[in-house]
Design goal:
It is a single chain. This protein is mainly β and 189 residues long. The protein is built from one helix and 13 strands; from the N terminus they run αβββββββββββββ. The strands form three sheets. It has a five-stranded parallel sheet with strand order 1-2-5-8-11, with no helix packed on it. The radius of gyration is 20 Å and the shape is globular.
């Protein structure tokens, strides 16, 4: 085999391996101009609602980006296993200084829940969970591991958590901006 043919073959092989290892996706949400009929993979084809995220399974290196200045109503529940070199990231995109806001619905116990995840970053968002009446145990962001074991490297950066309408009585369950829970009896793989 000639050296140039071998070099081309090696280059193709390494390119294929790199592509396979680096096939992460970026998903965009825009509450005003988006549509859940879009594919969500660019600002011009952004999804409109948090509901659209239910159709994806997060993989290492994936990103979910919310448009700055927009409010997204509902509950954001995510699970994903990133890696040290390819974490899963939830962040903001667009112009301006106003963070995108995830606003829990009237009956939600949390507005955002990260469940059984590793190497996961959430940053540059605003989270609120008001509800019409106080609810014991209500929180803004819940990071939860159940029957999971050790969760590695969950990063929470530059969040504004406000208006969480939990109980004012601690004995009733109180309320919190951020709640971290790790429990269970067995390790489910």
């Amino acid at each position: 085999m000639k050296t140039s043919t071998f070099t081309q073959l090696a280059f193709c092989l390494l390119s294929s391996v790199f592509y396979a290892c680096n096939s992460s996706h970026v998903y965009y949400l825009d509450a005003t101009s988006g549509s859940d009929q879009n594919n969500g993979t660019s600002p011009r084809s952004a999804w409109q609602s948090i509901e659209a995220l239910k159709q994806i399974s997060l993989q290492p290196g994936d990103k979910i980006l919310f448009k700055k200045g927009e409010t997204f109503s509902g509950i954001l529940e995510v699970t994903g296993k990133g890696t040290y070199t390819h974490p899963i990231i939830i962040d903001a995109y667009g112009e301006g200084n106003q963070k995108p806001c995830i606003a829990g619905n009237d009956t939600s116990m949390y507005a955002v829940r990260i469940f059984n995840s590793d190497y996961f970053t959430i940053q540059n968002l605003e989270i609120s969970n008001t509800g019409k009446e106080r609810k014991a145990g209500r929180t803004g962001l819940k990071v939860e591991c159940t029957d999971y074991g050790i969760s590695h490297n969950i990063r929470i950066n530059n969040l504004t958590i406000r208006d969480v309408n939990g109980s004012l009585v601690k004995e009733e369950g109180g309320g919190s901006g951020i709640l971290i829970v790790n429990g269970g009896d067995t390790l489910t793989l």
